Amino acid sequence: MHILVLASDYTLYTDELLKINPSLQLIAGDKPSDLIDAGKNCSIWLGDPHLVAELLRFGVKPKWIQSTWAGITPLMADDLSYDCILTRAVGVFGQLMAEYLLTYFLAHERQLIERIDYQKEGKWYDRQPGTLKGRQIMIVGAGEIGCCVAQMLVPFGVNLIGITNTPRSISPFHQCGTLEDLPRFLETADYVVNLLPNTSQTQNIWNATLFARMKPTAIFINAGRGSAVVDTDLITSLEQKQLAGAVIDVCRTEPLPSDHPFWRTQGLLLTSHSAAPSLAHAIVELFYDNLNRFCNNLTMRGRVDFDRGY
């Protein structure tokens, strides 16, 4: 069985795959134009969505594609069509996302940036820090990753609010709602975390109207998709002190151009798409599990529903 590995860090993936099964026949690279013939000879692909999409445009089609990312936006382009299985990365990002969010929750409560600024000026910072206990944290997009984040936040004594696509109760959230409930729920949240996927319903959802519903002491964190935020509206909300701050991990264009106003917006911290990286060993474990499922005609983890877009 020949497997094509098409990724920026393809050697990391091939090394991990051969540790699991040295007999695997792998063809790997990071340039789609060099792998057209290999793509024709491999019915199974493991790859970065933007590179896989480029290879698909050469008219090459496998039986199954395993994405190395949770997001598969490049593969949802209008000029691409599918008669194959597509699976996205699931079950590998929850703890990474929780660690990322905790970093900035605690940095805010402990006034880390302010203390660094005071230290640079040789000043003693004597203001009392805050605590996460009792804070209301809203996770907008309480799917697999969001639920894992919520579970890891339980020991901190926070009040967890979840936003899902359908009405239902989910442990450990104290309350759940849908996007229709979002404006009302925003009024009491101390931290608002966007983890929504990129769909037609979620594009530009974070606009001036929603930011105006948030508390002036609230922190907005976008670790979902850059397309969800109206950049100019977020900047205006921060400048007018409608929000206490924002942490932006994902942007509409990446890397973010040097002339983008986000770089200079007071109260906005950029984290350069580092929230939940695709670690090779975890992706390969998922891929190998799905490979066994594929070969045995079993339900595959993270299979994409093309109608929903995720």
Number of strands: 12
CATH fold type of the largest domain:
Rossmann fold
- What is the helical fraction, as a range of percent? 25-40%
User: H/E order of the elements?
Assistant: EHEHEHEEHHEHEEHEHEHEEH
Supply Rg: 21 Å
**3D shape:** elongated
Output mean pLDDT.
96
Strand content: 15-25%
Low-confidence stretches: none
InterPro entries: D-isomer_DH_NAD-bd, NAD(P)-bd_dom_sf
Domain D-isomer specific 2-hydroxyacid dehydrogenase NAD-binding: 103-275
GO molecular function: NAD binding; oxidoreductase activity
Pfam families: 2-Hacid_dh_C (PF02826)
Task: Please describe the topology of this protein.
Elements: E1 2-6, H1 10-20, E2 25-29, H2 36-41, E3 44-47, H3 49-56, E4 64-67, E5 85-87, H4 94-109, H5 112-120, E6 136-140, H6 144-153, E7 159-163, E8 175-177, H7 182-186, E9 191-194, H8 208-213, E10 219-222, H9 231-239, E11 245-248, E12 268-270, H10 280-295
Parallel strand pairs: 1-2, 1-3, 3-4, 4-5, 6-7, 6-9, 7-8, 9-10, 10-11, 11-12
Helix pairs in contact: 1-10, 4-6
GO molecular function: NAD binding; oxidoreductase activity
Protein name: D-isomer specific 2-hydroxyacid dehydrogenase NAD-binding domain-containing protein
Domain D-isomer specific 2-hydroxyacid dehydrogenase NAD-binding: 103-275
